[in-house]
Design a protein that fits this description.
Elements (H helix, E strand, L loop, with lengths): L24 E4 L14 E6 L15 E7 L1 H4 L7 E4 L2 E4 L12 E12 L2 E5 L8 E7 L2 H4 L10
Antiparallel strand pairs: 1-2, 1-8, 2-7, 3-6, 3-8, 4-5, 6-7
């Protein structure tokens, strides 16, 4: 793209209503069943598919990584709630960290312990063994940390 291309008009095409994603890897740990708490000390391996090996270059220089996963077991859950009780208050599902979301995506910022070939070792990832990983991004404090952020009740 040349300098002049930035100033040419652009008309965005209609966005798709459906998207198709492919797992770039899978979570491996000793957690077999979803649970709401107790993830802080869980160490997981993210086994990245071999064809993505070159895409990991430089990731080992970061202390933390953002992991985007597909919470596949939630997709088969019989209930699809619009709200959930959170500390006694009925709360919209999108205002929670529940896996029962419309698209069942998990996003977690976790310490990156090591990159060993195509395997990342992380701690605190709230995903069970076999969870598909859709994307990895380096955690960038200047973009991802918001010290003035607030949450209800605190």
């Amino acid at each position: 793209m040349g300098l002049l291309d930035r100033f040419r008009s652009f008309e965005r095409p209609d966005p798709p209503e459906r998207v198709t994603l492919e797992a770039i890897g899978f979570v491996r740990n000793d957690v077999a069943k979803p649970r709401p708490h107790g993830w802080d000390s869980v160490e997981s391996r993210i086994e990245v598919r071999a064809e993505h090996a070159g895409r990991l270059r430089g990731l080992d220089e970061y202390s933390h990584v953002l992991v985007v996963s597909y919470l596949d077991l939630a997709a088969e859950a019989p209930e699809k709630p619009s709200t959930l009780p959170v500390e006694g208050v009925e709360t919209g599902i999108l205002a929670t960290r529940s896996q029962l979301r419309p698209n069942h995506l998990g996003v977690a910022a976790v310490p990156l312990l090591a990159v060993e070939g195509t395997v990342l070792r992380v701690r605190g990832l709230d995903a069970i063994d076999g969870t598909p990983v859709l994307d990895l991004k380096p955690y960038l404090p200047r973009y991802d940390a918001h010290p003035d952020a607030t949450i209800p009740g605190e």
